[in-house]
């Protein structure tokens, strides 16, 4: 795999039009990007494609350089997260294992995590304070992991009931106690992940009274007519709102200050795979539509604001317009430009798999990145996008 930036006049014009920076991460051959995570100061990134290795690259704002390849997993890596407070990386894979990577003498060294699962690990996220992390899996359970100093290893406690399907996505509440999950059972759940001797004694939140480890705090369904797999969940910066997206092409927001009522927006887009808050009342979702879409929430309804990718289609110059017309009519049965157009107008040429914050927080995000099945990483500048596309982020 080769890691490189996209250069040239055509790429420059794209960045001017979209106020975004585009990088072709995997090239020769082009491979999909499964997951990615930035370090605290955004000078390094850890990515994985459709293979068993993770790649750490240094980033100076214009190009990437390989730092180290993490080669401990024996099956496809499914998720990566980089803790900003401890500077530790956690990875999980279909080999049913997770590893915590620690930097020692400029080399990343792995330490296995005792997940105790019998199906593939699907997703992983550090808690905000970095004292523990959660791993979702196909074993119909969540492994909440913390470091056991007495035995010098990472151990896990399991949340099982009432889960009856694969966990596809997880996200932590800012209080480090509540854990949101999305599953292939068409449901989003919020659990208590309080671990004694690791977390301070929990207090009551807007989601309800304090609960013991593994207790179900809230449960939400998808769709009024079936629903779909919940691909991504995301707490707001204050922790009172929870957004999630499912395979039914809908965006959902639950506000714990409003009786945990579920607000649903049925989009005309293809299904979303990732969602993130970018301000207290705005969120971005992306997936099979190849581009990020901006939504706003005003407390009672979700409103579609617009696309964050609006490139101008480049028309092909030709001096044989009349000849082309007859040729297209003969070979393709039409002369309509819309019927003949085959180019994908978005920056991403395939589905967007994951969104991640780059600059700022969910309270006031300035930049975020997206990776996709086309092997690209795109850095989106929200401030410039608002000016260029005449959109507003509340």
Q: Major sheet, described briefly?
A: 4 strands, antiparallel
Tell me the fraction of residues in β-strands, as a range.
Answer: 35-45%
Instruction: Count every helix, treating DSSP H or I runs of 4 or more residues as helices.
Output: 4
Q: What is the strand tally?
A: 28
Shape: globular
Supply the key terms:
394 residues, mainly beta, four-stranded antiparallel beta sheet, globular, disordered N terminus
Question: Mind explaining what this structure looks like?
Answer:
The structure is a single chain. By secondary structure, the chain is mainly β. The protein is 8% helix and 44% strand. It is globular, with a radius of gyration of 22 Å. It starts with 8 loop residues before the first helix and ends in a 5-residue tail after the last helix.
């Amino acid at each position: 795999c080769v890691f490189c930036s996209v250069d040239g006049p055509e790429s420059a014009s794209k960045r001017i039009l979209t106020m975004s920076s585009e990088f072709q991460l995997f090239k020769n051959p082009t491979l999909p990007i499964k997951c990615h995570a930035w370090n605290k100061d955004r000078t390094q990134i850890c990515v994985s494609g459709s293979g068993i290795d993770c790649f750490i690259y240094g980033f100076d704002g214009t190009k990437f350089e390989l730092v180290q390849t993490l080669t401990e997993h024996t099956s496809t890596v499914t998720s990566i997260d980089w803790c900003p407070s401890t500077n530790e990386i956690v990875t999980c894979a279909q080999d049913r294992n997770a590893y915590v990577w620690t930097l020692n003498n400029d080399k990343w060294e792995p330490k296995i995590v005792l997940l105790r699962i019998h199906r593939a690990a699907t997703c992983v996220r550090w808690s905000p304070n970095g004292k523990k992390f959660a791993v979702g899996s196909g074993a119909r359970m969540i492994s909440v992991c913390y470091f056991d100093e007495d035995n010098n290893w990472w151990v896990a406690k399991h949340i099982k009931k009432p889960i009856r399907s694969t966990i596809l996505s997880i996200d932590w509440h800012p209080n480090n106690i509540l854990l949101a999950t999305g599953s292939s059972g068409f449901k989003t759940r919020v659990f208590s992940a309080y671990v004694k001797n690791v977390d301070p004694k929990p207090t009551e939140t807007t989601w309800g009274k304090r609960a013991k480890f593994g207790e179900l705090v809230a449960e939400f369904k998808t769709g009024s007519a079936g629903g779909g797999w919940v691909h991504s969940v995301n707490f707001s910066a204050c922790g009172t709102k929870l957004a999630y997206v499912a395979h039914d092409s809908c965006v959902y927001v639950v506000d714990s200050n409003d009786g945990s009522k579920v607000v649903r927006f049925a989009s005309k887009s293809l299904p979303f795979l990732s969602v993130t808050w970018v301000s207290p009342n705005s969120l971005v979702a992306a997936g099979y539509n190849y581009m990020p879409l901006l939504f706003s929430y005003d407390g009672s309804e979700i409103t579609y604001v617009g696309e964050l990718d609006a490139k101008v289609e480049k028309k092909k110059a030709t001096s044989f317009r009349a000849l082309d017309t007859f040729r297209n009519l003969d070979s393709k049965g039409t002369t309509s430009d819309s019927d003949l157009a085959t180019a994908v107008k978005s920056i991403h040429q395939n589905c967007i798999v994951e969104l991640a914050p780059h600059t700022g927080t969910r309270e006031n995000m300035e930049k975020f990145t997206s990776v996709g099945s086309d092997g690209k990483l795109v850095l989106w500048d929200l401030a410039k996008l608002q000016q260029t596309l005449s959109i507003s982020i509340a």
